[in-house]
Write a structure and sequence with these properties.
Number of helices: 15
Number of strands: 3
Distance between the termini: 57 Å
Oligomer: single chain
Helix content: 55-70%
């Protein structure tokens, strides 16, 4: 439920608004506004937009907590999807595999559950983006997406995931069509806005990317770590290295790829000691991950990022990405 208060101070007013869990009374979201009295009608519209934007992420978090407390025998397909969403947001090999299993279990309970099919595909797309080992392939993701769209062609998230899959298949024109469709279907889907921002960076359109990731962070005031990576990548492309570092520091815990981007940023800023330290952390974690999964680390450390660099469609952007890592100490 929503509640709030208004205080008048001279010609100004202070409005406090909060969303509460009706069952527990737990505070889900709070915002304060200080405005001139003459702005009251514009403020009403702003508050409504803010509540609508905050609701999806907060409701998902609340639903996930309810699902956690339920005994396993009574978990429904919907609950399984919520629990799977929590796992994939960890952005680890283990978390993604666990999420995929939750989604597959949801499909087993309800084969017509479009979102479960979409999220199976999403975990595969994430594995490819994170260069994680796995037996699932993009063809498996394509099959799940096609099934989801057959069930519900109006699901914005399905079109957003499909767009990323098409990007990975280098079908960029089709990818943009599906991103446009996703955003038309649900302009308030923060995850779609965020992943679109990521792809725009690789297309060389970092200014547009920053607009979309800003929108995503407004729509979801408690963004997952992935949003910070997307944001920082756009800032790096814009040569705004100091801002990129600050953005990466907002993440709750840096992963191997965050270390690589921090290394490149520090190197471009001339902060060579910090750049080397982050580069060493990246190489250590990435090589450990490869070895644990039976892959031999490359002799040249720059080869650890070659596949990622190839996502940039523009050679100037690609070289800029590699240049930062060379300056940070990667060889090859």
């Amino acid at each position: 439920m929503a509640e709030g208060s208004v205080r008048k101070i001279g010609s100004r007013m202070r409005v406090t608004v909060q969303l509460l869990d009706g069952a527990s009374g737990y505070n889900l979201w709070t915002e304060r506004y200080d405005r001139e009295l003459e702005d009251i009608f514009a403020l009403q519209d702003e508050i409504v937009r803010a509540i609508v934007a905050a609701l999806p992420g907060r409701l998902e978090d609340a639903g996930r907590e309810i699902a956690r407390r339920k005994p396993t025998p009574s978990i429904t397909a919907y609950d399984l999807v919520l629990l799977g969403n929590e796992r994939w947001r960890q952005l680890t090999v283990k978390g993604m595999a666990e999420a995929r299993q939750f989604f597959r279990d949801a499909v087993a309970l309800d084969p017509q559950y479009a979102r479960a099919h979409v999220n199976i595909a999403w975990t595969i797309v994430c594995d490819v983006f994170l260069e994680s080992p796995g037996t699932a392939k993009l063809d498996d993701a394509l099959s799940e997406i096609e099934t989801a769209l057959d069930i519900d062609g109006g699901d914005a998230w399905a079109h957003g995931v499909f767009a990323q899959l098409l990007f990975l298949r280098r079908e960029d024109a089709k990818a943009e069509i599906h991103f446009s469709r996703a955003l038309a279907l649900n302009p308030n889907d923060a995850d779609v806005a965020a992943v679109f921002a990521n792809i725009l960076v690789y297309w060389g359109r970092w200014r547009e990317a920053l607009t979309w990731i800003d929108a995503a962070k407004r729509l979801n005031p408690f963004p997952p770590n992935l949003y910070h990576w997307y944001h920082a990548l756009g800032l790096y492309s814009g040569r705004r290295y100091d801002e990129a570092v600050k953005t990466l520091m907002e993440a709750r815990s840096p992963d191997r790829w965050s270390h690589s981007l921090l290394a490149a940023c520090y190197a471009q800023m001339g902060r060579h000691s910090e750049a080397r330290s982050e580069a060493e952390a990246f190489v250590t974690e990435r090589c450990r991950e490869m070895s644990a999964n039976g892959a031999a680390p490359p002799a040249n450390t720059l080869d650890l990022v070659r596949a990622r660099a190839e996502r940039y469609r523009n050679s100037v952007d690609r070289e800029h990405f590699l240049d930062g890592l060379r300056k940070a100490g990667l060889s090859g």
